[in-house]
Amino acid sequence: MDGKRRLGHAGERDGRATMTSILEQPLDLPCGARLPNRLCKAAMTEQLAGPLNCADERHAKLYETWAGSGCGLLLTGNVLVDRMHLESPGNVAIVGDQPPEHLAALKAWSAAAKSQGAAVWMQISHAGRQTPTIVNKTPVSASDIQLALPGNQFGKPRPMTGQEIQATIAAFAHVAKVAKETGFDGVQVHGAHGYLISQFLSPRSNIRNDEYGGSLENRARFLLETVDAVRAAVGPDFGVGVKLNSADFQQGGFSFEDCIQVVEWLNEKSIDLLEISGGNYEQPALLGIEGMQAREEQAVRASTKAREAYFVDYAAMVRERAKMPVMATGGFRSRVAMEETVSSGMADMIGLGAPLCGDPYGPARLLSGESERLENHAKKMRLGPGFLGPNSGIGMIKMVNALGQMAWNYLAIEAMAEGRQPPKAKGLLSSFMKHQARQQKQAKALER
Asked: Can you give the residue ranges of the NADH:flavin oxidoreductase/NADH oxidase N-terminal domain (predicted)?
């Protein structure tokens, strides 16, 4: 079954044509673009770049595979706007004028992603204080508040100067312009998961007393000015999205009430797709797990905990206020839940992540009627039984389980990028150790 048929047609079940799913309906965006269906491969960091943080043939190979996933929109993982502030030493980064070979690799990446009918957007980001020490021991952030995580993996940040803020806004705009020039259909400004823009939004990590700190209006200024700069750089007919936390789920952090207000301000901007997620490194709600600190619950409808998707009820309440299409990401597994979410008006698109690491064609099978649900291979993995599992009361064990599951996904992405099958026989601890070693090797090889 080829990718175009997956994107555009109903499948068969028991020899009979199935009813066309609402998930196969196209979505028209404010910029004039049309997405072929309601499924999106959500952003997952690829960590495949070489010493100069450039894309290469592995990115094209990986997205050639995901082009047949059945998803109508493919979001790349983090593409960083600053090489000193990477989420991982293997990130792609775009800083200043790019050499011809990197521009060619970016064009090959976007062409591969679009080869079977999907659109592709580049997620653009700055890691801020979530830059690991193997990349930068003294990163910048909104303020000098260090991540409360064990292991000394992240250094104490210093507050950005006003000049640095303006330079970073310009860097986001520059990367968006390069994305457009190299064949991508849009960009997503990453304002969630504790990265730099999210650090400015949260009163826990932003204690500034200038125009970028204090009130929510000031804390949101960096995001809103970045969106304006990106739109000015790419023009009106190019996709511009934002990824926003429903909440940080931390005491004194960015709340759902804050989220709703930021959405009201984004309504006045030229946004084509708003993705709702949640959490950060300290409270990884995006992974469906609790962090080492107590989770702060938010004022949302009581049905949240009964649903399989982590943030769908938050997305539904956002959609009641948002003027742009809304995407819900996190935890979706069954076709029934996805269809219910779209048909009931809770979200316009469904974001799918980790299941595409174990089975890159899973969404296509859902649309064709060959299967009813996706499986997340990494989520089944654990360090051991009982207190050695993901819900351990011992913080370090809980963290190793979470990082090991993520590490397996990274290794699966690497395998697909090299034309191999995801390594389903590999265990959690060995995945964790191999990924740690790979990151150390990439960090030592970085050329600055």
From this structure: 26-366
